[in-house]
Input
Amino acid sequence: MSFGGGRSGRRTLSDINVTPLVDVMLVLLIIFMITAPALLQQVEVNLPKSTMGQAEGKEGLTITVKGADDILIDKEKVNIKDFDAKFAAARVRLGDRGVVFLQGDEQVPYGRVMEVMDRIKGAGVDQLGLVVQGVPEKSKGR
Output
């Protein structure tokens, strides 16, 4: 004799099982924690310090002058002789609306940075930004 109301004693389970959802979310969290530092990897440069305000972050192409012969276009090392061709190819990928950022190490001679800037301007770039390291308000000499 069963008291289940005429059925064979089976009841449907109407609760949501959240364990698989939690497992998937934890796996995704671990994947993002591992890959995020690799995406944020940047070129090490000792930038000159400036007391000017911070520029607003925009998408763009970054040119780095690390030494007399070390020039990078978005982390890709380029020889000064091949700079014009590689820069033109990178600029095509960026499009016309992109800003070009130039950053130079403190120890790089001023003439080398100006040579790279001259080549960038010669390629028809209208928006060129110079990257410096900001100085906090407390250490400004006022």
User: Anything to note?
Assistant: The mean pLDDT is 77. Residues 19-39 form the longest helix (21 residues). The helical segments are 19-39, 83-94, 110-122.
